[in-house]
Amino acid sequence: MLRPMAITASHLRADVYRILDEILETGAPVEIERKGMRLRIVAVHDEPGNRLDRLQAHPGAVNGDPDDLVHLDWSGEWTP
Predict the structure, then answer these.
(1) Cα atoms in the Cβ-side hemisphere of radius 13 Å centred on 32
(2) N or C, which terminus of the chain has less Cβ within 10 Å?
(3) Which residue in 2, 1, 6 sits closest to 34, CA to CA?
(4) 28: how many CB neighbours lie within 10 A of its CB?
């Protein structure tokens, strides 16, 4: 991991969008000094498989060929 650049909270506030863009472009983290503590902003890159792991189940969804629904016999389900 790259050594983080340290800045003050005032510097972050004055130039937040440029600093965030730089973190995304370079991957270099930035540390912000605030009240005697340090906070670190780092770019997080999701691994390709993680996005699929976050999918939520949709139990009522149709899984298959939509054309199959057109040819189903619904006459037993219909009542006038």
Answers:
(1) 17
(2) C
(3) 6
(4) 14
**Contact assessment for residue 30 and residue 23, using Cβ atoms and an 8 Å cutoff:** yes
Give the helix/strand (H/E) hosting 33.
Answer: strand 30-34
Cα dist from 65 to 34, 57, 59, whole Å: 57, 19, 16
DSSP label at residue 4? P
Encode pLDDT of 48-77 as tens digits: 666 777 788 888 887 888 888 788 887 888
Q: Would you tell me how many other CB atoms lie within 10 Å of the CB of residue 30?
A: 20
What domains are defined for the chain? 1-44 (3.40.1620.10)
Per-residue confidence (pLDDT) for residue 79, from 0 to 100: 83
